[in-house]
Amino acid sequence: MIYTVTLNPAIDFVINMDNPLLGTINRSESEALYCGGKGINVSTVLKELGIESVATGFLAGFTGKEIEDTLKAKDIQTDFVHLESGFSRINVKIRSDEETDINTKGPNISDYDIHLLIKKLDEIKGDDVLVLSGSAPQNADDTIYAKILSKVAKSGAMTVVDTTKKKLLNTLEYKPFLVKPNINELMETFNAKINTLHDVEKYAIKLQNLGAKNVLVSMGDKGSVLFSEDKQVIIQSAPNGEAINTVGAGDSMVAGFIAGYLKSKDYKYALKLATACGSATAFSEGLGKQNEIHRMLDLIESK
Ligand SMILES: Nc1ncnc2c1ncn2[C@@H]1O[C@H](COP(=O)(O)OP(=O)(O)OP(=O)(O)O)[C@@H](O)[C@H]1O
Ligand SMILES: [Mg+2]
Q: Given 3.40.1190.20, 3.90.960.10, 3.40.720.10, 3.40.50.620, which CATH number is that of 1-18+29-129?
């Protein structure tokens, strides 16, 4: 089974409007709600690929219930820890000529809540996959993902970490199968300027030397580079198209990589399916759907 962990899920409230102004009443032109969070996005794209997963992490309050109901309606299995107080986040995304986001804090978690989550992951076996994605609640420290990995590392499960800075670095001693920083995250993790492919390689190899098996660096419309465990460097360009929404492209890429690798055990194919999923999302309103993913894969494979 594949388990995705989202520590701080959110409902995105997207408001489309002209000229938002502070200090006055603004009226929206249209609005929409999207339930998500990075691990949840991975589960959603896996579902599009016909692969089952269990979405876990922390939920709270009425917004938490809505997120869980939305997942269930999509026939995605859930096994969240329900926090006793607070409510899962509502992030406000104002879309006008510019994009303005208000990302909220979300509920606090206690050591006991973390213990409950780790207990849920107790049953993980060697042929399972664990995906740890995204930011953590504000009161959680930078060892939270490392703590989770320390408990599951001995199972031999395949682990994937998509986060940044110390939260990422702290996990590396547990030898994650895949880490997927985007180029900005790679820069902020090492506090370095990265301008050339040579620079990308330098820091990706640093991540490998610290313990990561495979390092996938994504670069938006410029594609991605995989530094694999067996010392291949695979460069993959992204298909051309009109980007509609690139939020979640990286999460989609993670889903595609896992699906592709599990199916073929071939890094080149895994990277192609990863790219198809990432680009399908970039060219869609929400996350990429099955048809668009297959269209992208055909485009990539015909090159
Ligand atoms: N504008 C685009 N056109 C084509 N493909 C894209 C575009 N943006 C993203 N992709 C595809 O998706 C992959 C992942 O995108 P990106 O590097 O933006 O991830 P990210 O920053 O981690 O995203 P997020 O964290 O929001 O999920 C890219 O490597 C590329 O294959
Ligand atoms: Mg990302």
A: 3.40.1190.20
